[in-house]
Amino acid sequence: MNENKTSILITDDDEDICELVSQLLIRNNFNCTTARNGTEMFARLAEKQIDLILLDVMLPGRDGIDLCRQLRSDPGMPPVIMLTARDEEIDRVVGLEVGADDYVVKPFGSRELIARIKTVLRRVRYQPSGASIGTYCFGQWQYNPARMELIDQELTVTVLSSSENDILLALVQNPMIPLSRDRLLSLTKGRNSSAFDRSIDSHISRLRRKLKDDAKSPEIIRTAWGAGYIFSHNVDVQ
């Protein structure tokens, strides 16, 4: 195994899927390893550096949704792309709500999967270091982009997915300025991801919930009809 290559963990109980996806990843210059369930997945994560997880929703024992929720509770865990045979909108929304960075429906094309993987990795790697961006303070909140964390007045920590983190960072760096979806895509380096484009509204909804921002009358991330979204608080950087 080449330690300089990006390492991807495939968590799926279907051996044929694991074999096909492994071959695809190797052909595209990735390292890969596999796990059949959540127990094996966490064992692999403890054994080696993993850069991204492909996580099937329908797993024996704990399902992928529950496992993704646990992964997102630890800011040190890698990004997650959910794999599922279900194409219902509610399934995609639930996957995104528990912190998945993207969602791919089986059967998927090889080009699509590789493009999704590269886009998520590009978004994660673009995040600047903590030393360069510091901590953002607004209202009752402290926001640490390097750790992908929100901290409230009671010092309760809320973990963000990498997509949520990208969007919130773009918003706090441009307070009081309407940002269209295209502009958010540009700022988050996600312009080439149609999936990210389609899910921006879902990411904004999840951010509002995590910020305790009333969805019907938001005070922090306001909707600018026809223009996009506005971060409506003054922001201090520490």
From TrEMBL:
GO CC annotation: cytosol; protein-DNA complex
4-aspartylphosphate sites (modified residues): D56
Record's keyword annotation contains Transcription: yes
Keyword DNA-binding appears in the UniProt entry: yes
DNA-binding region as annotated in the record: 133-233
TM region positions: none
Domain Response regulatory: 7-121
Span of domain OmpR/PhoB-type: 133-233
Gene3D superfamilies: 3.40.50.2300, 6.10.250.690, Winged helix-like DNA-binding domain superfamily/Winged helix DNA-binding domain
Any one GO molecular-function label of the UniProt entry: transcription cis-regulatory region binding
The organism's place on the tree of life at top rank: Bacteria
PANTHER family (alphabetical): DNA-BINDING DUAL TRANSCRIPTIONAL REGULATOR OMPR, REGULATOR OF RPOS
The name this protein goes by in its record: Response regulator transcription factor
